[in-house]
Amino acid sequence: MGSVPLTYLEAELKVDKAVPAELVRNFVFAGVSLTLAWYGFGVWSIILGHLSGALIFAAMLWRAAWPFLDLSFASGATASLLGASWPLALLSLLQQAVLRLDPMVLGLYFDSEIIGFVGLAMFAVFFFPRLLADSIGRAVYPALVRYRSDPPRAFEAFRIATLLLLAFAVPTAFGLFLNAAWAARFLGGDAWVGAADYLRMLALVPLLRPFSMFGFELLLTRHRDRLLMLYATTNLVVIGGLGAWLVHTDLRALGMAVAGYAPLGMLWLAWGIYRLDPHAFKRLCADILRLYSVAGLLFVPIEILTPAATWTRLASSLLAAALVLAFAQRRFGHDFNAFLRGR
């Protein structure tokens, strides 16, 4: 029920009106679940916390959207809507399969402890990029739809959003690579330090997929469904097949992390984006390479000169991350500000 007014507010670029409902939902969920857990309700505390948060979330969203939302009924439209939407449903299933490929494949060959370590590593590596991608994407996708008749402006929105996300994703990836043991201990405690090896191996995988962050949405607005299916299917087959073979080598479970560095489906995605605007695509590639180069110059010496799992390495990594963000702000800050202010 809450998704109906939420979708409307996002489509109309009124995302700010949904923020109060989301903040209240989070506070209600946390308050109810923690309180019930304190009184011994066990797992039900989380379930009831989610239900309470969802109810207040839906109610507040309807209240926010009601002055603007025009509801109507179109007889017999459901069948045609489902017919037009099935490619999106299939794409969603393929994307979810790719995102969960590591535990799906490893679950066939290893015990639950290894799967737990892999799950923690995947959470750490992809949490921050997905968190930002979801937030930024809520403004980007409606903007891309609105700019369909103005391709240069649509591509510029895609470019800025991609660079904004990479400005945070790049130092995060390098930081996790250099400080995998710290990250595993911080997220799970001493019992989860076994996730550090997988986390370190997986950490740089997001950097090989810069266009997937918003390129999927860009091509969706151009109805390139077949190309996107080819992109997702290729990743699923290549990464899954390569990983299933590598786990039987000396790499063992780490084979799936290594397979993540072969997202060949990205070639289809890059080709589709390139065809939309070759000049703008080359400009974006140059910007990404600059960002990667600056990060490499700052983080590689830390890997060489500092001992692993030390405070010196952690502090140096945080300083390097701050410098990468400063470079991104100096190089792209004007574009970021214009985008975030809705210009």
Helical proportion, percent range: over 70%
Q: What structural class is derived from the secondary structure elements?
A: mainly alpha
Give the SSE string: HHHHHHHHHHHHHHH
User: Can you count the helices?
Assistant: 15
Q: How many strands, which pairing sense, and closed or not: the largest β-sheet?
A: none
Mean pLDDT: 92
Brief summary:
The protein is mainly alpha-helical. The protein contains 15 helices and no strands.
Describe the structure.
There is one protein chain. The chain folds into two domains: 3-65; 86-340, no CATH class. Helix content is 77%, strand content 0%. It is built from 15 helices and no strands. α1 (3-11) packs across α3 and α13 crosses α14. The protein is globular, with a radius of gyration of 22 Å.
Topology:
Layout: H1 3-11, H2 19-38, H3 44-65, H4 77-99, H5 101-106, H6 112-146, H7 151-178, H8 180-188, H9 196-202, H10 215-220, H11 225-246, H12 254-259, H13 265-276, H14 278-305, H15 311-340
Helix pairs in contact: 1-3, 2-3, 4-11, 6-7, 6-9, 7-14, 7-15, 8-9, 11-13, 13-14, 14-15
